[in-house]
Amino acid sequence: MMRKPKILGFAGSLREKSFNKKLLRIALKGSADAGAEITFVDLRELPMPIYNSDDEAANGLDENAQAFQNLLAKHDGFLIASPEYNGSLPAALKNAIDWASRPDGKYNRSEIFTGKFAAICTTSPGSFGGVRVLSHLRGVLTSIGVYVLPMEIAIPFVAEKFSGEGEEMSDDRTRGILEDLGASLVRAVRKNRFEPELALGTRS
User: Fold this and answer.
1) What is the mean pLDDT of the chain?
2) Per mean pLDDT, which range of 10-24, 28-42, 189-203 is the poorest?
3) Which CATH code for domain 6-201?
4) Cα 81–84–90 angle (5° rounding)?
5) What pLDDT, in 10s, does the model give residues 85-107?
6) In the chain, % of residues over pLDDT 70
7) Which H or E element spans position 185?
8) Distance of alpha carbon 102 from its chain centroid, rounded?
9) Is 184:28 a contact under the CB 8 Å cutoff?
10) Can you state the percent helix, strand and coil of the chain, rounding each to 5?
């Protein structure tokens, strides 16, 4: 039996009650319903210093960066929800990606990213929904060899789509779109990473 696709979800926000974390969990449910094994990691639990090549040369890879690398390496695809900070990525998200792309003797540069797939989404309380972050995030991921799904989602007026402080989204249509994003990522992984392997394995 072919193994399940493994999807890792993480958000660009460190805020405990981040709307983007809520979005991410909904999209991850879509991945799980599509047959994937899912993992959620909160970057606030893996704090990393600002990347400085002098520090890396003196001390090696930060231990939390190594832990993040190992998580990324074990997964076939990534679901990322990121807020827009001043028109771009939050510093913590970019910093985590920068650290994880570094070679450390165990992995070559960007090895854990290359050839894998990602789906991206964002939200904000305002009318633009954080949309400007998506092109920046897509550019960063593409530069390290990740295939980013054409489908991307920006949700405006997010506070109106949840009931109070809970995780449950009250907007059925938006929830369906997010779950479909998670399912689309699983389909992309299966088609592009699993099916070619299966075809090779069945040749005589």
Assistant:
1) 92
2) 189-203
3) 3.40.50.360
4) 80
5) 999 999 999 999 999 999 988 99
6) 94
7) helix 172-189
8) 18
9) no
10) 45, 15, 40
Q: Using CA atoms, how far apart are residues 133 and 114, in angstroms rounded to an integer?
A: 21
> 51-63 pLDDT, tens per residue?
999 999 999 999 9
Length of the chain: 204
Task: Spell out the SS3 assignment of the chain.
Answer: CCCCCEEEEEECCCCCCCHHHHHHHHHHHHHHHCCCEEEECCHHHCCCCCCCHHHHHHHCCCHHHHHHHHHHHCCCEEEEECCCECCECCHHHHHHHHHHCCCCCCCCCCCCCCCCEEEEEEECCCCCCCCHHHHHHHHHHHHCCCEEEEEEEEECCHHHHECCCCCCECCHHHHHHHHHHHHHHHHHHHHHHHHHHHHHHCCC
Return the structure tokens found at 24.
Answer: 């991410």
Domain borders along the chain are: 6-201
Q: What per-residue confidence (pLDDT) applies to 150?
A: 96
Quick one: how far is CA 20 from the chain centroid? Answer: 11
User: Model pTM?
Assistant: 0.92
Q: What is the pLDDT of residue 201?
A: 47
